[in-house]
Amino acid sequence: MDLLPTEEQLEIIGTVKAQLESDFSLNDLAERDGRDQVIDDTLWQRCAELGWFALGIPEEDGGVGYSLVEEALLFEEVGAHATPGPFLATILAAHVAADCGESELLGQILSGERRVALAEPEDGNQYRLTDHGGADLALAISGSRAAILDLAGVEITPELSLDPLVPLGTASIDSDPLCAVDDPSISLRASVLVAAELAGIARATAEQSTEYGKDREQFGRPVGSFQALKHRCADMAVRADAAVNLTRLAALSVVAGHDDAEFQSEAARVLATQAALENTTWNVQNHGGIGFTWEHTAHRYVTRAQFRARTAGTPRDHRAALLGASAT
Amino acid sequence: MNLDLTAEEQAFRDEASTWLAENLPTEERPPEGAEMRAFDLAWQRTLFDGGWAGINWPVEYGGRGLSDIQQMIWYEEFAKADPPFTLNNSCTFVGNNHGGPTLILKGSDEQKAEHLPKILKGEAVWCQGFSEPGAGSDLASLNTKAVVDGDELVVTGQKTWTSYAHVADLQELLVRTDSDAPKHKGISWVICDMRSPGIEVREIETMSHVTDFCEVFYDEVRIPLTNVVGEINDGWRVAMSTLSFERGTAFMADQVELAATVERLIAEARERTSADGRRPAIEDEDIAKRLSMARAEVTALRAMTIAGISRTARTGIPGPEGSMIRLFHGELHQRIYRLAMDIVGAEALRLTPVDGEGVWTGPYLQSFAYTIGGGTTDIQRNIVGERVLGLPRQ
After folding, report:
1. In this structure, are strands B145-149 and B187-193 parallel, antiparallel, or unpaired?
2. Residues B54 and B131 in one domain
3. Which of B89, B28, B95 is CA-nearest to residue B63?
4. Which domains occur in chain A, in start order?
5. Mean pLDDT of A287-298
6. Between 20 and 30 A from A161 (CA), which of A33, A247, B111, B183?
7. Structural domain boundaries enclosing B173
8. Active site residue: B76, B172, B246, B268, which one?
9. Which pLDDT band holds residue B314 (cuts at 50, 70, 90)?
10. CB–CB contact A249 B303 (8 Å)
11. Whether the Cβ atoms of residue A138 and residue A96 lie closer than 8 Å to each other
């Protein structure tokens, strides 16, 4: 039993971090605020070339042959860097395509050639779409049911998004899905990956506040020397540590096929949601005036956390699922 | 990263579960005095005879030399066995979790040979003499004086918040041996015989009615210099090694038991009626939300504990990250018993003992200690802020 990343996993984390810092800098991406396609095809295909979408797909299906554990490590970094893009829809769609034996479609998704939006059912055939720009496919998920939908000819009504880097729209989609599965492992994967992204957000905002506490001086000393801020940073670090470690435990439990996999995944999702919402809120407060500006990245974590808290189920859905899950 | 148990760990789990089924006492723990002491020591002896004392202590000191993971497995099996008492609620706690581990790290060969077997066999009760009326959170300002006289120390002063002092044989005692040195440099860690002339123990009543809380007065108490653990005036460092244990594995048993408590509370909430009298308590939106969070949080606590064990396995000693677990655990424990008060309805007004089956209000009152004992949560936040995050000192 060991919850620390192996050397190989640390290498994956290192590569992802380096790439996100150079290619997905929030300052550079800010130019694309409000567009319906935030990540251009070149950048998306670079992620594909790095094998990010294929991490948890078996080698015989053209994947890298790791597991949900490594996917979760990727998502923790995606969260920590507030990286936009349809990572969740893409990776879930790859698994759905693999499950359905749609190898051509799988290949197109893994190569970044075809882009997948996320479609969350609202009412009947009405969907809430995110990251639809440049996508001709959508991954619809509801509980254990997941389907890949064709967006060709679908009219999307864009909406002003709370998060300017997460394009938002609505559409009604009537066509039959290209492929569909009813498989609890899809909802477990979604819960763990969203939890990982939220845990990453909680971790990064804890770190951002701590750094500010060391750098910013008032009354002639670093503000992080004052207990009011120091104690908030400590609480943020504890929340982040809890969320990160629980998410890793959940990912391992799912991969091992343990009886408590659903319990662990829902626990991770519930805890990481709370951690991200709390930490992103305090992070703005800890920065004072600068934290309220558009220029600072603190608000980006706030809106991303609010988005992810409602991605693939609401906080309320997941709390109910956790309370209903078997603990052993 | 993996959750696999080795064949040895799995065998250990099975062995523990079988042994507990056959040997766990069925009677409740007497709440006070000589009977309580006798019960705790008898249970420790039973553990020793069964090979369950000092699971993660080195073999050369009478332990089994097993890993922290195995220690955790033991606690998990203990909690699963539905015991009539909580493991850490025992006068053997300080010996097993502070005194013993400190002697293993810092004691002389003679000190180890004299004391470690007695701790494991349930032949000695230890208590802790750290806090003083004037030295609480600022522990290093402690003022109980010890003057060298020949081959003895002569100790005069007062300690407080000493659990089980009234039934203890020995005490891990911090004294000031150099008043001129900077405050951290003039402290010594000594083993004090609680039967020495000049010691007076007075019990302190607590808000939870638990009667094992004491203060201890020292009037020229003579302690042989051979009882100093580590170097004289180096007691602060010795004490910190004890505290790192306390923040590392000592409270693992409590954490495991807390997860079982949440499950019991969920069962209560299914059976009891909500405050409006119309449905099961678990269908009350507020109760459901808090129970769900509690479940997530105790699960996270386990994940943090495993992560801590993984880190300790690589570095050898528990790091300051243990303070994060202590902080999280203390407040979570308190939150859970406060939630219990909202679930149990009218029973929230009937006082129960702290320990035993189906009790909630006694543990609720006792839960206030969890954010104070072993360093208040405010101090834990300072430690996390300064030693884990590297924020500047005030």
Report:
1. unpaired
2. no
3. B95
4. 7-182 (1.10.540.10), 185-324 (1.20.140.10)
5. 97
6. A247
7. 126-234
8. B246
9. confident
10. yes
11. no
